């Protein structure tokens, strides 16, 4: 810590008792390092007093600061009392006041007269509109702008007066009050002040420093470097060059200090990285280049605070870590759950009859839960997914989730006040659960926020809606962060850029050095245009760029090893452009810079297909499988042997997921179940025209029965694509019934023999000695008899494919080793089974598929152009023997796609 060491050394020369000094710093972070330096110098006296410059200004102004929720509520009470037009409610007020308040604070800090700026804004709007007829409508945009600044010229002076009456002040008002008291303070104080490491001052801060210098009650130590100080083009030295011109720096008081550190030898590397989080993956490689295994004198600077979790993930091997930056509260799971709770409440105000499942599931997943709650939630999700309930009735929710400890939070709130009480009580309760420290802090911050809002709302009588409460919470939480504690004096330091002020590190690793992150660019959230800000000497994005430039150059000027990483991918607000500061160093500095390109490969981790060997356990499972083999098992194997292995050997199954739109599988089930119900009534009789005509009229009733069988809600099919799917299903069923009706009308004799005919224990021998066998089982969708011919019918959602069989001696072994022939394979197995069931002996057999995609065509039969059913079963035998062969592994069938 070269700069801090230099300051302490200078002060000890001046006085061995440092308690006579008040050290004023840009932030509190350097205090712990100053104490360490004093300990290393064997200092045994009293410590100096430490202030931030904001604390010193506050001390001079002697006013009670007001900010955040307290200020918004008080300001709205004042606004409402003025009866201004538009008469915004609190929710609308919060949409513009926080931004206006920041602008107002800027005006109070940087301009001579806030009312002059407000009047200027109003006059500018009037000039723009002088020749326009704005009419009488208040919603015309130009009139709204004009009225806004007209109202602010009334509202803000009254707000200031009311705040002053209570001795309350915003940060801008504190600066304004301090400005009037600085001369007296500088003259009367007997204290000595030391201002360390400052760059940019507000006018009030500058007046304070210069007044104390004039009375010889202060000294300033700046940390500047000739590289950017001497060059007028370098924005990093903009403010320091101005400070050098103060009359207080003369022959008797030098401007201290300007070093020449930046041009000293440095190892600078710039990394172009494909991906934001990918930057963190490079950190372990960079750490290998650092000789000090404890990583002392090393800082990782995150310009994007969202990279903190990913950075910590790759630093698991670092023993000593100190995190100086805060992590935004808004990015944590409990914060997301609270947002979802408020969103749910808003939805309940719109829809009072049911809950949308996607509004409920995220809350249940992200809120901390006890074991009892977890059991209730798991049962609830299983039942909702099983029944595919998209919109959950209030009655059903209470029935399934009534045992949840925080069920009251999911119900429509009676009032905002009562809901806040429930939230506070909930936060108190879950802090007793076994949750990690970060989540505990997260919950505690929210509990504190809920209490603050409840307490602040008490004095006011205006109505607070749930939407308003949500805005209040979001405004409060967006500005909050969780602070981490660690060992600040050793090990690796993880920091934000502002936390590095006054500190120096030998190794600096900076992530997200992108344009828009460093500097932030023209991203000010303000109502005051750029030219007016310039006119009244308010800070613009240009001044902010200069401030960030100084922090950047100051951090690396003393470093020996500098690693600058930036995300080269364009996504969202990130342009993929490296910071202009990197370009400046490349173009203007004397340093040799090493450039590295790190690509995030999109290739799969393994390009080899999955291969499972047939171990003794697998072979044992296959022996069990032989007792119950279905045609679908074989088609599954043809499609992908790994799917067969997972489902038939490991007995795994896909988890149920809620379908907002009917899937192809369930569309097929809807038609299938409907047909099953229709033909079950007609089973065992020769069909008449009247039977089929009656069935056609009653299709809707049968579809409703099928929907119950699917465990779907009737409402699921009332609108959108599902309404269309149901209508298509009805048309398909109608086409099938109509086709049968036409057959009967033409004099054909059609009899329904069986629907969903179950079969099992149909043996199929795998060797000539009839010692090794498998047993077929399964269901045949429909068996009927048309003019004396037994028809075995399988329903398919897909179109019909390859039902003409061509088997000869050359291809008999591998004929059905082709997934394109799986429909024919299935029909051949059904043919074999029916042949072997005594009840069907003696009948001519025909097997076929009835496709829902082409329902009007009727049954398309299996045809043998070459070979017969016995040849087909030889090929089936060959396929089964391959599955059972211990020397043939299960190998993934990788699907390839081409244009």
Automatic annotation (TrEMBL):
InterPro entries: P-loop_NTPase, PDDEXK-like_dom_sf, PDDEXK_AddAB-type, Restrct_endonuc-II-like. Coiled coil: none annotated. It comes from the Bacteria. Residues 629-892 form the PD-(D/E)XK endonuclease-like domain. Pfam families: PDDEXK_1. This is PD-(D/E)XK nuclease superfamily protein.
């Amino acid at each position: 810590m070269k700069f801090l060491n230099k300051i302490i050394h200078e002060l000890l020369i001046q006085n061995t008792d440092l308690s006579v000094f008040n050290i004023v710093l840009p932030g509190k972070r350097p205090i712990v390092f100053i104490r360490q330096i004093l300990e290393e110098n064997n200092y045994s006296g009293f410590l100096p007093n430490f202030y931030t410059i904001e604390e010193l200004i506050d001390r001079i102004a002697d006013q009670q600061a007001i900010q955040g929720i307290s200020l918004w509520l008080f300001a709205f009470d004042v606004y409402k009392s003025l009866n201004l037009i538009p008469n915004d409610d609190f929710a609308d007020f919060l949409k513009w006041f926080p931004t206006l308040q920041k602008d107002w604070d800027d005006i109070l800090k940087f301009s001579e007269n806030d009312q002059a700026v407000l009047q200027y804004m109003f006059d500018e709007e009037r000039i723009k509109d002088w020749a326009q007829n704005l009419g009488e409508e208040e919603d015309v945009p130009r009139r709204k702008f004009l009225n806004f600044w007209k109202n602010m010229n009334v509202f803000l002076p009254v707000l200031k007066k009311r705040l002053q009456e209570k001795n309350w002040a915003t940060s801008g008002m504190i600066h304004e009050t301090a400005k009037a008291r600085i001369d007296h303070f500088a003259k009367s104080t007997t204290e000595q002040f030391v201002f360390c490491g400052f760059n940019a001052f507000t006018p009030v801060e500058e007046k304070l420093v210069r007044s104390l210098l004039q009375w010889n009650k202060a000294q300033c130590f700046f940390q500047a470097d000739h590289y950017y100080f001497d060059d007028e083009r370098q924005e990093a030295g903009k403010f320091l060059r101005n400070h050098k011109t103060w009359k207080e720096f003369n022959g008797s008081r030098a401007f201290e200090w300007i070093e020449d550190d930046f041009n000293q030898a440095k190892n600078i590397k710039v990394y172009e990285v494909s991906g934001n989080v990918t930057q963190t993956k490079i950190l372990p490689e960079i750490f290998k280049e650092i000789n000090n295994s404890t990583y002392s004198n090393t800082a990782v600077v995150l310009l994007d605070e969202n990279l903190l979790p990913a950075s910590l993930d790759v630093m698991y091997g670092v023993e000593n870590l100190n995190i100086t930056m805060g992590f935004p509260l808004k990015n944590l799971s409990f914060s997301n759950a609270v947002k979802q709770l408020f969103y749910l409440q808003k939805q309940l105000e719109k829809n009072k009859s049911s809950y949308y499942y996607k509004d409920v599931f995220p809350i249940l997943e992200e809120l901390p839960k006890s074991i009892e709650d977890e059991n209730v939630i798991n049962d609830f999700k299983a039942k909702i997914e099983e029944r595919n309930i998209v919109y959950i009735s209030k009655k059903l929710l209470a029935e399934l989730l009534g045992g949840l400890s925080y069920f009251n939070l999911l119900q429509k709130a009676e009032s905002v006040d009562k809901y806040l009480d429930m939230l506070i009580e909930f936060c108190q309760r879950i802090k007793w659960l076994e949750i990690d420290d970060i989540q505990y802090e997260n919950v505690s911050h929210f509990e504190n926020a809920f209490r603050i809002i409840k307490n602040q709302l008490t004095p006011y009588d205006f109505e607070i809606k749930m939407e308003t409460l949500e805005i209040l919470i979001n405004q409060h939480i967006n500005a909050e962060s969780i602070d981490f504690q660690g060992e600040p004096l050793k090990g690796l330091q993880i920091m934000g850029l502002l936390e590095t002020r006054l500190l120096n590190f030998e190794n600096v690793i900076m992530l997200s050095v992108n344009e828009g992150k460093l500097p932030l660019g023209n991203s000010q959230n303000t109502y005051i245009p750029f030219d007016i800000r310039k006119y009244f000497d308010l800070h613009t994005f240009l001044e902010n760029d200069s401030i960030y430039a100084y922090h950047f150059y100051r951090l690396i000027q003393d470093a020996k090893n500098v690693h600058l990483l930036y995300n080269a991918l364009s996504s969202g607000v990130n342009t993929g452009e490296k910071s202009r500061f990197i370009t400046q160093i490349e173009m203007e500095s004397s340093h040799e810079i090493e450039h590295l390109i790190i690509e995030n490969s999109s290739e799969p981790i393994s390009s080899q297909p999955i291969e499972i060997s047939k171990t003794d356990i697998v072979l044992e499972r296959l022996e069990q499988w032989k007792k119950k083999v279905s045609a679908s098992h074989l088609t599954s194997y043809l499609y992908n042997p790994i799917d067969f292995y997972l489902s038939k050997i490991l007995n795994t199954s896909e988890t149920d997921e809620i379908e907002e739109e009917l899937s192809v599988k369930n569309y097929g089930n809807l038609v299938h179940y409907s047909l099953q119900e229709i033909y079950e009534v007609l089973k065992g009789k020769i069909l008449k025209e009247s039977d089929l005509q009656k069935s056609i009229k009653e299709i809707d009733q049968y579809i409703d029965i099928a929907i119950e069988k699917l465990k779907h809600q009737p409402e699921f099919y009332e609108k959108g694509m599902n309404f269309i799917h149901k209508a298509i299903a009805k048309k398909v069923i109608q086409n099938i019934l109509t086709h049968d009706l036409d057959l009967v009308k033409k004099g054909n004799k059609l009899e329904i023999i069986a629907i969903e005919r179950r079969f099992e224990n149909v043996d199929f021998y795998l060797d000539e000695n009839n010692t090794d066998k498998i047993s077929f089982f399964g269901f045949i969708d429909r068996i009927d008899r048309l003019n004396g011919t037994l028809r075995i019918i399988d329903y398919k959602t897909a179109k019909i494919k390859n039902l003409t069989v061509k088997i000869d001696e050359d291809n008999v072994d591998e004929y059905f080793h082709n997934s394109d022939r799986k429909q024919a394979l299935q029909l051949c197995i059904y043919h074999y089974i029916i042949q072997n069931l005594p009840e069907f002996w003696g009948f001519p057999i025909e097997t076929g598929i009835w496709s829902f995609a082409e329902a009007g065509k009727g049954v398309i039969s299996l045809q043998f152009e070459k070979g017969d059913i016995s040849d087909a079963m030889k090929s089936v035998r060959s396929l089964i023997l391959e599955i059972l062969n211990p020397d043939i592994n299960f190998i993934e069938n990788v699907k390839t796609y081409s244009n």
